Amino acid sequence: MLGHVRDPTPDAGVIQQLGAPQDLYETPANVFVAGFIGSPSMDFFNARLVRVNDTALLHVGSGADTRTLHLGESLAGQLVGQAVADGHQVILGIRPENFRLATPDDPDTLVGTVDVVEHLGHEQILYVSPPGAIAPEVTETQGSTVRIGLDAVVRPGDRIALAADIMRLHVFDATTQQRFV
């Protein structure tokens, strides 16, 4: 089910983050900046952090559609180091270019249905509806956007698995919408 992320800026014109464009793109301070910088914009998912000893997992989605992402050591270490509580609700952010097609049995994948395939000559943009996807008010789509190469054959209605680059995940606090890592 798609939800919406509230706009963290109570007043128009409030500066959210200063920095070079690439720095804002790579390390946005909050959900607003993450969704505003980049085209297509960052994809967001409802998730819950689960700590297992010194490692961390993210449960994305809910119920039978829940998928688990195992966080890399450095990302897990940062979350553990920030004393993020076990079971904490977070917003997971993934840039469209940080997905790759996988098989549904692969670990650390999100599964969704392709709504639209946009052929752009040098790449394809997929609009996908995976469980747990949320749509910030600043984004132009209602699901997730994925960039893939021309060699993949994907059609609307296909159910696909997406593996995310674990080293390029963004994790935000669900309440404050500020960046954890």
Number of strands: 12
The CATH class: Mainly Beta
Uncertain stretches: none
Indicate the overall shape.
globular
**Biggest sheet, in brief?**
7 strands, mixed
Indicate how many domains the architecture comprises: 1
Task: Give the % helix.
Answer: 10-25%
- Please give the alpha-carbon distance between the first and last residues: 25 Å
- Give me the number of helical elements: 3
Could you tell me the CATH topology label: OB fold (Dihydrolipoamide Acetyltransferase, E2P)
Going by CATH, the architecture would be Beta Barrel
What is the overall pLDDT average?
A: 83
According to CATH, the homologous superfamily is Nucleic acid-binding proteins
Structural class: mainly beta
List key phrases describing it.
five-stranded antiparallel sheet; seven-stranded mixed sheet; mainly beta; 3 helices; globular; 181 residues; OB fold (Dihydrolipoamide Acetyltransferase, E2P); 12 strands; single chain
